[in-house]
Write a structure and sequence with these properties.
This is DUF6525 family protein. By secondary structure, this protein is mainly α. Helix content is 71%, strand content 0%. The relative contact order is 0.12.
Length: 72
Amino acid sequence: MRRFDRLPPDLRGWLRQAALCWSVRSAERVWFKELRRHGGDIGAALRRLDEIERCLLEKDAPRLWGRDYPGP
């Protein structure tokens, strides 16, 4: 929990609303990589986390809820 508490406030906020249970380590890795890549742009780092999470959900949805999820 201490490691989570030391995260940057924007990343902590994103993790609180995340659909998946991210490890602090995984979230930090993406966060700092994207900040370096985008010259410290917090919005870009948050958008990348959203994109990764969306891709993971899309990949896992058929296995978890069936191929027809979410349906017509």
